[in-house]
Amino acid sequence: MLDIPVPPHPTTLAEWLAHAERLHPVTIDMGLERVQRVARRMGLALDCPVITVAGTNGKGSTCAMLESIYAQSGYRTGVYTSPHLVHFEERCRIAGEPVAASELLPSFAEVEAARLGQSGDDGQGEVSLSYFEFTTLAILRTLSRNGLDLAILEIGLGGRLDAVNIVDPDCAVITSIALDHMALLGNDREAIGFEKAGIMRTGRPVVVSDPVPPQSVLDRALEIGAELWRVGRDFHFAGDQQQWGWAMHPSHGGRRYSGLAYPALRGANQLVNASGVLAAVEALRGRLPVTAQAVRNGLAMVELPGRFQIVPGSPALVLDVAHNPHSVAALAENLDAMGFYPGTHAVFGAMADKDLGAMLERIAPLIDHWYLTDLPLPRASSAAALATLLDGQPATAPGGQSRVAGQYPDPMTALRAAVSRADPADRIVVFGSFYTVGGVLQDGVPRMSAKHLPG
Predict the structure, then answer these.
(1) Under DSSP, is residue 146 helix (H, G, I), strand (E, B) or coil?
(2) pLDDT tens across 51-63, in order?
């Protein structure tokens, strides 16, 4: 009998992630049939209420605010969000902290056994999973083992066919819907809205915090009999420069909060996100009661790196994962609201499949000097290609010169160049992709002085 060598079983998180990257012929493969089959073999289930969050922008902030409020009420929360900025473990938070890599390893092994048909075999043989599907199942299994009071799940892409949607939410939240990932989700907001609406469930609440939702979202809620809660109709918010307030329509109980401090996450768009968060809290109040003080404390203490994150120092540093025209427009609005700075320097790297022209058109007038960076992904635009695109934008540099200060192999090298050139009174903004922001956070939040930057 021949001895057939057995490939070594991955023993570290890095090995498991590398293994998951090799399994499937395409990076993104929309559909639930394969991932559902493996989940059934695993007997995967979450034994707690679930909130699922979909949308183009605002998902991460919404998840973070929900997590913070429920933690302040004493509940044990589990959060799945993607992508990560620096470390994969950031995608799975238990009780507010990223899970240890060692805690993920048994879940990866269980997914692999089920995928190969070694456990829960249904006679259908091996199942090919994409990286996102494989890792989603591993994180869901990790959450299921942690005795949670609430699971908060962020959709990775779209909604209807995203791997996260194998879990039935007790409450769905749909944040702002804009044009992004159009090759996969459709060419307009109506088509994209239909995909996002796939997270709704019959008879269960869906909170829509987009002030002008596509009709496809409203139609889908009516078609399946979901309980629709809309901002501007079922709940409202208003604020001045000092504070803000929120109110539920009397038909939903009429609860009110007044004199709220602004959320700790900066940016005008965060009030819209926070308003949807409070509606979701009301939707689940019967199962997970939350105090008014927990709401106030949760919003005041929430943290989420890379969402208009301002690092104090000289020069000031702004980190923002804005990576599509809608989120870049919000970033531009927030930069305008910061007040006057003599010069604004941008560290910018982005994916080639984004609407880069629309992104740059909105923010280019605010940027004096660009430091363009390559990113470590095949689908990323090169710094050289970005430079060509920027040279087509109207110039504001003295004498009409190109505002491209340089092209760099990675975000940290670009940031070091920006710091060395910027005056202390200037500001630097790092944006364009999770990978751009993550690239300058590899060693923690940079201290804004050239002598303190790594390298």
Answers:
(1) coil
(2) 999 998 889 999 9
